[in-house]
């Protein structure tokens, strides 16, 4: 076991609980996703042994390589999904957080119908809350149309929304973006007449602010595994 990993995992859980309690939320409503991007499978094995139940990866190929040697966990794709990686993503991930256009949703639907009879894939819709040109994600005003497309696909289960706010050093700078995502989710749920319970937002720098603003999934790597090389 790498020195400090169980303690860091426990400390992140403690900070999530404290943030939840500040807003009178139940800490158990927040899923901690340990982001294993670039870390070796051996570290992921140790994280699961220390109690991590959910693992996040940015790249499909990393999960394909690591998952077979890691004890059972729920795997989340939190990086961009390219159309030509859709089949591999379905094989490697339990939850895909980054559906951001009709083309990807329809490709997942086609592959599921062809290769995974009876399976429904859990997905979230990625929203570009900061309107950053270089980032993936549907623009907020286009989210209703994409949500309608996803809901019409019977092999996809739309859980909610995901966002990555503009990068910065101040956690409070993320708060307006987290709040905007929550408010967009609420409007969409009312408009579509169905619950969208999950909000995937918050990383090592700002996950406490995200929890205060309603996150139900936080994606934490550095605070658990340490600095990347």
Compact summary:
The protein is α/β, with parallel strands linked by helices.
The major β-sheet equals: 8 strands, parallel
> Tally of extended strands?
8
Cα-to-Cα separation, first versus last residue: 19 Å
The number of distinct helices, counting runs of at least 4 residues, comes to: 9
Taking pLDDT < 50 over at least 5 consecutive residues as the criterion, the unreliable ranges are none
Which features would summarize this protein structure in a list?
globular, 8-stranded parallel β-sheet, alpha/beta, 229 residues
In words, what does this structure look like?
The longest helix has 18 residues, at 5-22. The protein is built from nine helices and eight strands. Strands 7-6-5-4-3-2-1-8 form an eight-stranded parallel sheet. Helices cover 40% and strands 17% of the residues. By secondary structure, it is α/β, with parallel strands linked by helices. Helix 3 (60-66) runs parallel beside helix 4. It is globular and about 45 Å long. The mean pLDDT is 96. It has helices at 5-22, 41-49, 60-66, 86-92, 102-115, 143-151, 175-192, 207-212, 222-225, and strands at 31-35, 54-57, 74-77, 95-99, 121-126, 156-162, 198-200, 217-220.
């Amino acid at each position: 076991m790498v020195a400090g990993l169980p303690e860091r995992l426990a400390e992140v859980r403690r900070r999530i609980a404290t943030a939840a309690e500040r807003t009178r939320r139940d800490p158990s409503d927040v899923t901690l996703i340990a982001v294993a991007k670039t870390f070796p499978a051996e570290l992921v094995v140790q994280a699961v042994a220390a109690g991590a139940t959910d693992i996040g990866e940015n790249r499909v190929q990393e999960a394909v390589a690591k998952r077979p040697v890691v004890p059972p966990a729920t795997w989340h794709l939190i990086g961009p999904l390219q159309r030509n990686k859709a089949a591999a993503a379905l094989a490697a991930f339990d939850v895909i957080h980054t559906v951001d256009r009709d083309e990807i949703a329809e490709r997942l639907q086609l592959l599921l119908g062809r290769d995974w009879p009876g399976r429904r894939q859990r997905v979230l819709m990625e929203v570009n809350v900061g309107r950053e040109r270089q980032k993936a994600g549907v623009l907020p005003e286009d989210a209703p149309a994409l949500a309608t497309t996803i809901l019409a696909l019977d092999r996809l289960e739309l859980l909610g929304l995901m966002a990555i706010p503009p990068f910065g050093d101040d956690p409070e700078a993320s708060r307006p973006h987290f709040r905007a995502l929550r408010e967009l989710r609420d409007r969409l749920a009312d408009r579509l007449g169905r619950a969208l319970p999950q909000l995937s937002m918050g990383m090592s720098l700002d996950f406490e602010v995200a929890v205060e603003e309603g996150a139900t999934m936080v994606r934490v790597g550095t605070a658990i595994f340490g600095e990347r090389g």
